[in-house]
Amino acid sequence: MPTPARQRERVSARALDEIVNRIVQERQATGAAGTDLLGLLLAARDENGGGGLSDAELRDEVMTLFLAGHETTATLLTFLFLGLSRRPDIQAQVHAEVRAALGNRAPEAVDLPQMPLLNACIQETLRLYPPAWLVPRQATGPVTVAGVPLQEGSNVSVNIFLIQRNARFWPQPDAFRPERWLGQTRAPGAFMPFGLGARMCIGNHLALLEAGVIAALVLRNSTLDVPGGGPTGLNADVTLGPDGPVMAEVSSES
Ligand code: HEM
User: Fold this and answer.
1) Does residue 13 lie within any of the structural domains?
2) 93 falls in which pLDDT band (50, 70, 90)?
3) Ligand 1 centre from 69 Cα, in Å?
4) I want to staple 173 with a disulfide (CB 3.0 to 4.6 A). Which of 32, 133, 149, 165 is the partner?
C-alpha cells in the first residue's frame, strides 16, 4: 500500500505528464513546428542523418525545461516582490527608474541595461534566496575535496545558500542591500545562483531576462505591499521558497 506522500507524488507526476503531453500534442496538431524552443526541439534532426527526437525524448526535454525553468524563476520573482515590499524606499526608486526608462510602454529585453537598480535587486534576491540552493554531486572515483577524502560513490552537495551568505565575502550577509551590486566587483565563486562549471544552468540568461521583463512590467505601474511583511521562514525543498503564502496588495496607477 503506497503511503499518502507517495500517492500524492504519483498524482503530481501524472498531472505534470498530462500538461507536458498536451503542450506537445497541441503543437503537433497545428502541423507547424513554430519558431520557439518547442519548435526547435520538434525540428531537430540528428546531424549524422538520423531522425528527430522520439516522443519519449521530446517529452523528457520539455519536462526538464518546464521543471528547471518554471518554479526557479517564479520563486525568484516571489522573493523579489517580497523583498521590495519590505523596503518601500527601494521599491520607489526602482519604480522611478523603470518609469524613466520606459515611460508607459511595455519593457523589452533591450531595456534591461537601462535599469541598473532593478538588476541589482534581482542579483541581491538571487544571493539571499538562491532558488536552486543545493546542488548534489556523486564522486565517480576517489577524490579529495577541501582536504576531505571521498570514496567513489560518495554523495556531496554544494550549499549555494551558505556560500552566498558567507560574511567573509558579503558584509551584513543577511541584509537585503541591492546597492552592493552597483559598480562593485565580487569574489569569484562567492555568487553562484546558477551553479558553476560544466553543468551550469543553461537557462541563466533566459531566467534573468524573463525575471527582469516581468518585474519591470509589474513595477512600472504598480506598488506592491505584503501586509504584515509576509512569511519570514524558508522552506528548503528541491527549490528554496518562503514557508507560507505570499499575498500582496497591488496598487495600480494609470
Ligand atoms: C532563477 C532561475 C534559475 C535558477 C536559480 C537556476 C539554477 C540552476 C542551477 C544552480 C543549476 C545547476 C545544477 C547543477 O550544477 O547540478 C541549473 C541547471 C539547469 N537549469 Fe537552471 N536555473 C534557473 C532557470 C532555468 C531556466 C529558465 C531554464 C530553462 C528554460 C533552466 C534549465 C536548466 C537545465 C536544463 C539545467 C541542467 C543543466 C545540465 O545539467 O547540464 N534553468 N539551474
Assistant:
1) no
2) very high
3) 7
4) 165
Q: Is 25 in the pocket of ligand 1 (CB under 6 A)?
A: no
Q: Which domain holds residue 84?
A: 77-131+161-252
Q: Which of 56-60, 191-195, 199-203 has the lowest mean pLDDT?
A: 56-60
Residue 70: pLDDT band with limits 50, 70, 90: confident
Does the beta carbon of 76 lie inside 6 Å of ligand 1? yes
Q: What's the rounded Cα separation, in Å, for the pair 115 and 220?
A: 12
Q: Which residues pair with 252 in a beta bridge?
A: 222
- Return the ligand 1 atom nearest residue 70 CA: 27
Q: How far apart are the first and last CA of the chain?
A: 57
- 3-class DSSP state of 232: coil
Helix, strand, coil tally for the chain in percent (to 5): 50, 10, 35
CATH code of residue 102 = 1.10.630.10
Return the pLDDT at 206.
Answer: 92
